[in-house]
Please model this.
Amino acid sequence: MRAGDRRALVVVGASLAGLRAARALRERGFTGTLTIVGDEPRPPYDRPPLSKRVLTAPGPPSGTELPVPPGLEARWRLGQAAVRLDLAARTVTLADGARLPYDGLVVATGSAARGWPATKPPPPAGVLTLRGWDDALVLRAALAAGGPLVVIGAGFLGGEIAAAARERGLDVTLVEAASQPLERAVGTTAGAYVAALHREAGVALRTGTTVEGFLTGADGRLAGVRLDDGTAVRAGTAVLALGGVPSTGWLAGSGLAHDGGVHCDPRLRVLRADGSVVSDVVAAGDVARVPQPLADGERLTLGHWTNAVEQGEAAAATLLAGRDPARAPGPFAAVPSFWSDLHGVRIRSVGLPAAADETRVVEHDLAGRRLEISYHRAGRLVGALTVGRTGRLAAYRSALRERLSDGCLPFGSGRDRRAEDPPPASARPPGRREEAPRA
Model:
């Protein structure tokens, strides 16, 4: 496919990755028909504020819209989820029965909130999840009504919800199955630091335990949660913050490999179940499972804002290059990064801390709100995390970028897993090594 032709491109997913892909297609000269499909009826909006500003703003929340660039000239199909992909016919079928033909397709359907296990009795009214705008408004109203609140899962989302609720003055209990918050993502030292932040802010943190079930009142609504240690915690509202599930249900029967996310090659082209490349279909954002060289080529899904932006733009370049090897971009090799706001503290990270087998603590000052940790795999840098030391991340980012650009890192298929999964046993013998701060 050549930029500037009159073919039809379809972007399935009207959030950050999809919008960035659409914008990049136009910026790279595509002048044909561009259709953007979204399952929500509202225009694209930014998701990070949903667990922060939207929950705490004194008035009606605003300023979360994602800017649609002038000249995009897209045909919007909002409020209509994609329900089927036919690779042979090159069509996407929508929930209303409409069939959209395409010459090139961007899969950017993101992820959905992981719900309560279907093997257990369904939760009562008052148990919520947070993924989209409507979810945030429901949770905002529940917080305004008062607590107590129980948040199940102390990852990035759960921690931010707990912090927002404490800012509103609610009694909050945060329940986490691991020994520390964020342990799988950033290790025990950073996890313990985050745990201390929660406790200092008045959050009742319960680690090493899980929720077994829910208690209800006479009206059938939530009254509390029952933990696996036999104790009960009173609750007017509970939030399931158990991670995300890539939105791939509409790809059933398509022939694509999509377990735990859409499998991609290093250029973001999607793969069939037999491992072959579909050259006219690419994926980006939370739904894309892409080889990560910092994790020895394992395919990971990364649910971070910057990843959605960078993959959206890279996927557009790959799609426009088509089968022309002279115009094909190189492997996607951006340095991952994320941030999280907790109790007035901003945590920033670059690279893939979850892929590390060794953690080196450079600075640890809880009272001064400073933390600096570097993460290593087989002795080589794979990530860094800071609190109050943002300026120091630049050197880590540069070192990681240099590693990625020198071409010596693998892009092999490896063992597929998600970024929130623990590193494979072979990568952490006999366990992640945590070093004390250096003098």
